[in-house]
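Reopening this one. Same input as before:
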Amino acid sequence: MCLPQPSEFQHLPSFGGRLNAVVCGYLILSLPLAFVHIVKSKTQNSRVLLIILDVAMLGLITAGASSAAAIVYLAQKGNNNTNWFSICQQFNSFCERISGSLIGSFVAVVLLILLILLSAIALSRHH
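Same output, byte for byte:
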C-alpha cells in the first residue's frame, strides 16, 4: 500500500514559469522582424504571420497565468476533500512571491492583448 508523500516546494508545477519563458523568448526573437516591418511597409504577409504567432503566444501565456492562479488558490484555500490544507498560514513568503508572479503574469496577458490589437489596427490601416 502506498502512503501519500508530504508536499514539498519543488513538487509544485513550474508550468506557468516555463510558458512565460517561452513567450518571452519568442518576443525577443521576433523583435528583428518587427523592426523590418517598421522600415519596409510592404511586408503584409509576414505581418499577418506575426499576428497569428502572437495570438498563439497569448494562448500560452494565458495558460501559464491560469495554472499559477490555480496554485495560488490551492495554497490559500486548500482542499478539504483531499486533506490538503492551506499552506499560506505556514509559509507566508511563498504566498507573497507566488501572488506577485500571478499579478505579473496577468499584466503580461493584458499587455500582449494590447500589442496584438495595435498590430492588427496598424495592419488594417496599410490596406
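So the earlier flakiness isn't reproducible anymore. For the record, The helical segments are 15-39, 44-77, 92-125.
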